[in-house]
């Protein structure tokens, strides 16, 4: 069994992303977790400024958490282009009567 090489894996994924997206723009929803952040970093390396990373502030995150995540991911060395989208009301309405205090 071959030893896993993170650099080779990343380079391979970046090539695949470039091939798939080409010169188009892309949006990635980022939660701040390892999976979505890794996908965002690889995609940003592949397509640069054609990427926008969005945090959906859905009323279920701790107060200030979306801003903290955006701050961390937008700083060097990652420099991800971050946007916070407030969707609390839509999420709560879709849950049909659920509220922040329920």
Architecture overview:
The protein is α/β, with parallel strands linked by helices. The protein has a single domain (about 5-95), classed as Rossmann fold, CATH 3.40.50.620. The chain is about 45% helix and about 15% strand. It has four helices and three strands. It has a three-stranded parallel sheet, covered by helices on one side. Helix 1 packs across helix 2. It is elongated. The N and C termini lie far apart (about 50 Å). The mean pLDDT is about 95.
Q: TL;DR of this structure?
A:
This protein is an alpha/beta fold and 102 residues long. 46% of the residues lie in helices and 16% in strands.
The chain-level mean pLDDT equals 93
- The CATH H-level superfamily is HUPs
Q: Which sequence of SSEs, written as H and E, runs from N to C?
A: HEHEHEH
Radius of gyration: 16 Å
Shape: elongated
CATH fold-level label: Rossmann fold
Binned, the helix content reads: 40-55%
What's the CATH class, please? Alpha Beta
| Number of separate strands | 3
Poorly predicted runs are none
Topology (elements, then pairings):
Layout: H1 6-21, E1 26-29, H2 34-47, E2 51-57, H3 65-74, E3 82-86, H4 88-94
Parallel strand pairs: 1-2, 2-3
Helix pairs in contact: 1-2
Key words describing this protein structure:
102 residues, alpha/beta, Rossmann fold
């Amino acid at each position: 069994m071959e030893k896993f090489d993170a650099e080779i894996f990343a380079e391979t994924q970046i090539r695949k992303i470039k091939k798939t997206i080409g010169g188009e723009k892309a949006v990635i929803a980022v939660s701040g977790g390892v999976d979505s952040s890794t996908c965002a970093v690889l995609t940003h390396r592949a397509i640069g400024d054609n990427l926008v990373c969005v945090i959906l502030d859905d009323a279920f995150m701790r107060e200030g958490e979306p801003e903290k995540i955006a701050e961390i991911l937008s700083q060097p060395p990652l420099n991800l282009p971050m946007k916070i989208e407030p969707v609390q009301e839509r999420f709560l309405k879709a849950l049909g009567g659920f509220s922040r205090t329920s």
